[in-house]
Design goal:
With 197 residues, the protein is an alpha/beta fold. The chain has 8 helices and 10 strands. The strands form 2 sheets. A 6-stranded parallel β-sheet has the order 1-10-7-4-2-3. It has a 4-stranded mixed β-sheet with strand order 8-5-6-9, sandwiched between helices. β5 and β6 form a beta hairpin.
Length: 197
């Protein structure tokens, strides 16, 4: 994939960017950059596949509700000065799109930490915002719903969004980050591998 133009567009939108050929190289970069910090994690299969929690935990206080599921842990992560997550989709033009059930992840990427890192595999890159939202709803959400055993049509079939009204629906808040939020350092770390959903 040609990353030059994509990175340029993100940088025009106020993001800094990095590019790594493997998830291990991206993990090592973050481990080297982050020491003695309080780090919150957003829900992310990408971060899990990287082994990032375990790697960063050696020299940091890392808070992740995937390891200790609770509202209190989500709140503790929201107080961290560093936040790391992925994206359900990004656009070649420099936008980041995420869909959340509780809103903790989209909230932290909009306001709170001093620095927010997004780790993005090549499978998350879409041509435009319409395709990005489609990907969030019809690729990422059904697979995430199935992963957490949600009682939703998309989890049962893992094929598409049914725009359901299930109490277990995980598609409740959609955030489009058009530009890096004022006062927050945001870095998008592209990895030239398929990562997460």
């Amino acid at each position: 994939m040609e990353y030059g133009g994509i990175r340029q567009n993100f940088e025009k939108h106020g993001f800094s960017t990095q590019l790594f050929s493997t998830k291990e190289a991206a993990r090592d970069y973050l481990v080297s950059a982050l020491k003695n910090q309080t780090i919150g994690f957003g829900g992310s299969v990408t971060l899990q596949e990287m082994g990032l929690f375990e790697a960063l935990q050696q020299t940091n206080a890392v808070v992740w509700h995937n390891k200790v599921p609770s509202r209190d842990v989500r709140y503790m992560a929201s107080c961290a000065n560093i936040y790391i997550t992925s994206a359900n989709a990004v656009t070649e033009g420099g936008q980041i799109v995420n869909i959340d059930g509780t809103g903790n992840r989209v909230a932290m990427t909009a306001f709170g930490p001093q620095t927010c890192y997004y780790v993005v595999g090549k499978n998350k890159i879409t041509p435009n915002l319409e395709k990005a939202i489609y990907r969030c709803r019809n690729v990422a959400a059904p697979q995430n719903a199935r992963r957490i055993n949600a009682k939703t049509p998309c989890a049962r079939n893992a094929d598409k969004c049914y725009d359901c009204s299930s109490p277990a629906r995980i598609c409740r808040i959609t955030a489009v980050i058009d530009r890096a939020p004022m006062g927050m350092k945001c870095e998008v770390i592209f990895v030239d591998e398929v990562l997460g959903y």
